[in-house]
Amino acid sequence: MGERILIVEDEPEFAALLELWVTRAGYAASSASSGNDALRRFYEDHPDLVILDVALPGLDGWQVIERIREFSRVPIILVTARSAEADKIHGLKLGADDYITKPLSFPELLARVEAALRRAATPTPERPRRLHFRDLVVDLDEHKVRLRGEEVRLTPTEFRLLAYLVEHAGQLVAHRQVLAGVWGAGYDADVHLLRMTIRNLRLKLDAVGPGGSYITTEYGLGYRLTGPA
User: Fold this and answer.
1) Are residues 164 and 83 in the same domain?
2) pTM of structure
3) Residue environment code for 149-158, b if the CB has 16+ CB neighbours within 10 A, otherwise e
């Protein structure tokens, strides 16, 4: 291992526990107790992953995500006491890759850290560098999406999800299949995370081109990328 993990948490005891578990798992840990300090440490340490709380002094967790996403795709896992669905959706919209609510299971957190790092490190297999579906274009090299000629700004997770759906256009893809293909092993039961990310993706596509998300729900089964009726 040896990957660098930045822990952003303003509760000293909980931050110490996080650092203990992370270092015992073989990772190198650094920590910050405020949003401003988190950005400074991020610029200095160049971490491979960020574990981020939302309620922070100074810049809050939402603002930290926005700043990081201006220039980096490094995985971000939200660890927060905020369990409302609206907060989870907001975090994913801003660009978080995952979220865990407190109180949490440290082994589960480490499993999610490992999965996020594995996704970030996995080389992209040979495939067409630009995917097309009707008037939707997914450029894998530029990491950009265009719908009807207009760019759609997506988070890294939303981008991976859309690319996966376009690659399987017309096919019914089961929840477990999508979770394994986009998030990786260990997420096959996290249907709620998938549903929230699908919701955010639909909203962003429809905002650019109404009716342009093309994502249909097969209730109880999964999703299918289809054209308009």
Assistant:
1) no
2) 0.68
3) eeebebbbbb
- Burial of 30 by CB count in 10 Å (0-12 exposed, 13-18 middle, 19+ buried)? middle
When pLDDT is averaged across residues 8-27 and rounded to a whole number, the result is: 94
CA angle centred on 30, ends 70 and 81, rounded to 5°: 75
The boundaries of the domain holding residue 15 are 4-121
| Eight-state DSSP code of residue 125 | P
Q: How confident is the model at residue 229 (pLDDT cuts 50, 70, 90)?
A: very low
d(CA 47, CA 82): 25
CA atoms within 13 A on the CB side of 66: 9
Looking only at the bridges linking them, the beta strands covering 150-152 and 144-147 are antiparallel
Query: What's the pLDDT score for residue 201?
Result: 92
User: Per the structure, how many domains does the chain have?
Assistant: 2
Distance CA 25, CA 225 (A): 39
**How many Cα atoms occupy the beta-carbon half-sphere of 99 within 13 Å?**
29
Q: In this predicted structure, which of 10-19, 115-124, 177-186, 218-227 has the lowest mean pLDDT?
A: 115-124
Residues 47 and 151 in one domain: no
The enclosing domain of 220 has a CATH number of: 1.10.10.10
* Tens digits of residue pLDDT in 114-164: 989 988 886 655 556 888 888 889 998 888 899 988 999 998 889 999 999
Alpha-helical segments (H) within 54-174: 61-69, 85-94, 106-121, 156-167
Taking each continuous run of H as one helix and of E as one strand, the counts in the chain are 8, 12
